[in-house]
Amino acid sequence: MGALDEEHFDVELENGMKLGCLELGLEGEPETVAIEDAVKVLLEGLGEDVNREGLKKTPLRVAKALREGTRGYKQKVKDIVQGALFPEVGLDNEVGQAGGAGGLVVVRDLDHFSYCESCLLPFQVKCHVGYVPSGQRVVGLSKLSRVADIFAKRLQEPQRLADEVCLALHYGIKPAGVAVVLQCLHIHFPNLETAFLDPNHQGWVKILVSAGSGVFENENSDVWVDFLGLLKFRGINVEKIQTRDPIKSWCPSCSSSGAKISSELAPANPGMVSAVASILRSLGEDPSRKELVETPSHFVKWLMNFQNTNLEMKLNGFVFGKTDPHKTNGEASCNKKHIHSELNLSFWSQCEHHLLPFHGVVHIGYFRPEGLNPIGKSLLQSIVHFYGFKLQVQERLTRQIAETVSSILGDVMVVVEASHTCMISRGIEKFGSSTATIAVLGQFSNDPAARAIFLQSIPNITTSGV
Amino acid sequence: MGALDEEHFDVELENGMKLGCLELGLEGEPETVAIEDAVKVLLEGLGEDVNREGLKKTPLRVAKALREGTRGYKQKVKDIVQGALFPEVGLDNEVGQAGGAGGLVVVRDLDHFSYCESCLLPFQVKCHVGYVPSGQRVVGLSKLSRVADIFAKRLQEPQRLADEVCLALHYGIKPAGVAVVLQCLHIHFPNLETAFLDPNHQGWVKILVSAGSGVFENENSDVWVDFLGLLKFRGINVEKIQTRDPIKSWCPSCSSSGAKISSELAPANPGMVSAVASILRSLGEDPSRKELVETPSHFVKWLMNFQNTNLEMKLNGFVFGKTDPHKTNGEASCNKKHIHSELNLSFWSQCEHHLLPFHGVVHIGYFRPEGLNPIGKSLLQSIVHFYGFKLQVQERLTRQIAETVSSILGDVMVVVEASHTCMISRGIEKFGSSTATIAVLGQFSNDPAARAIFLQSIPNITTSGV
């Protein structure tokens, strides 16, 4: 096992202090307690037992995550930029532009997250910032990220976020100009019906926005061309920058069906809607601000997708059909039976520890007796959605799908691949991470060769970037 | 400019609090002050004026970064894992493995950084963790990352880091087994001589290590095959896992030339070496621990690459040679002159704000009169190294290279692309970010078409991943 034995390790455990940076002392504050109370109302509205083990600490976790994730309301740009402006000589303007007088500075690929003001779900932001120094001074590079973070850690909308970061840097650094490009990624907003109907439903909504000040005010200026040229080196495609449309929101909660549903749902769940409004107040926001008026009902609409139901799945009476000899896709032989792989069944779920979405794909492998057709993909997709649209943990989701599929098909193997919003939108902020879980039943559990055959049938996944 | 005007913004600035998470209150503590004093000794040893503007706060910045970056010494695994173990039923072992009883759980691509115990420079760690739950319980996914962080935030060596994370999770979660794979990336250790001699000097040293406990103790077990299969989906090539060699260090400071130099340097800089030893003590380490004995001299050796020198560059008497009509590589026409691009000149430098390396490539474009040969690449590379091997900021480096090249070649454009260690190894931890700076002289400053031609000649850069 390496250099440490258990005894050494126990000694090490005693030599400790609290988590420092991760504990902001939010616990027990009135705003935190108010959010906890509101989250309990939401959990009860979902038909959940707020005292069950997995949910006991959920209200506190949600409250801390929301308060940490909106701490930007209480931060000052001046505190960050002051003391990080450094004298740096440049060139006489007739000679050229460089250093502290005109030399473009660009920092790319700064990962942030923000909360969508339309639906209260976190969204990912890849931030690219450029500025042209003037006055013979430059700013410490990390400050570009820290200032962006102040505005990301609020309830936001991509274009306003870009504008605010741009303006804050402009007044903070007083350069010749600032340019901001944001690539934003918002989880899609399925509801049970559309998800079941549309198997090709996309997981993410993407948007690219920009803002410019000073020499960047004119989007057709040469300095924009230089800036975009430097983004292209990093593979950042800037051809699709959105022009600002203040009326149409990018958030999927604001689609026509969403707007309809909000008015349908609101009367049905007034307690939940008021609970979300009280959360907004506890975060220091004004729920009557026009961009926030619909937010509580949008969030409740999203949440109700994951309502606790006692719906029984009717899986009895399923029979294998006869096989079509020409159809051998997704199959591999093993011990005279075929391993059939049903890949990339999409799912949405809601992490019960943080009330945050996790989302990804399910791969199912099973042994198919020769001469019989594989089971229909749509039935498997329905099973996946049935267990996905709940308050869940990925480990349980994996087991439940495996057990249910096994009740029809016998020996099965299930792999669930997911991105967890809770891994990016809380303290750890691990943007590239992804989680995989496995369940194996019957022959798969003691036949490594069968497992390997199934795993090899799963295509490589490229990181879900912006 | 968008939704905010300056007045609105100023009001917003007043409504603030301190940075919260980013301010750990380390300022003024005896350990911090002791490190500040030691850093002043190092700066003086480099021939620097510790009171010049760019360096005034460097001792405090270095002290805070080092103490934050080694806070793992004071953290407890129990504090993190306790309260994050959740009951989760599994399956009877005869039926299969799933959920809280045997279903493999894998979290991939967790970005961390650590400090190399051989040279005190930060290195990047991409961490992949798997565990097989037992006892009908699972751990919150983020805890795998938080526990890894406790051991990463120390002076480390990749294999020990993997072993410690593995063991800590094993005793913390009490699962059937834990597997850890780390991909580590250490900046290469040039010294002035080898850098000048070897233009193809690689920027990074890479290593892949693993550790396993319980069912993962045997590296040839089937469960390792499952785990590695799930890493492959993410493009993680695990074929090069190192077997442990406790004698040979991965750190470039421990190469044979490094060992030689350390004994040469130590007598010359006893004050600097003792200063680094005192930093180790202030971090809670024992400088006489055998892995740390050479660390102060290694760090001083690295640092001395960036000594302040008054070396004059002799560039007079340079003349263009006649052109070879068959050689037109790296050229593009513009206004009857050719724009010649000299691309990917590597550089190392040391950020004067944080005493941390930044490293990357320089691209130089200039107008070459028709019929004349381009200037030799080795001269340009020498100019780049001359300005790189100093305490620097990227903006100044860019300007200095541009001014010097311009004194020989007239109108020039310089692009510097860099990764800054200070962007990952302090609070902001922005792992994927990269910085570009531009300087333009003469015709390039008022000819956007010439700039565009030069920028287009620069090849796209793939992110420097592990």
From TrEMBL, chains A, B:
* Matches recorded under InterPro entries: GTP-CH-I_C/QueF, GTP-CH-I_N, GTP_CycHdrlase_I, GTP_CycHdrlase_I_dom
Which Pfam families does the record cross-reference, listed alphabetically? GTP_cyclohydroI
Q: Does the keyword NADP apply?
A: no
| Record key words, sorted | GTP-binding, Hydrolase, Metal-binding, Nucleotide-binding, Tetrahydrobiopterin biosynthesis, Zinc
Reaction catalysed?
GTP + H2O = 7,8-dihydroneopterin 3'-triphosphate + formate + H(+)
EC number of this enzyme = 3.5.4.16
GO MF annotations, alphabetized: GTP binding; GTP cyclohydrolase I activity; zinc ion binding
Determine the domain of life of the protein's source.
Answer: Eukaryota
Q: Does the keyword NAD apply?
A: no
Which residues are in the GTP cyclohydrolase I domain? 35-187, 274-458
Pathway terms, separated by semicolons: Cofactor biosynthesis; 7,8-dihydroneopterin triphosphate biosynthesis; 7,8-dihydroneopterin triphosphate from GTP: step 1/1
Identify its protein family. Answer: Belongs to the GTP cyclohydrolase I family.
Q: What is this protein called?
A: GTP cyclohydrolase 1
Taxonomic source organism? Rubroshorea leprosula
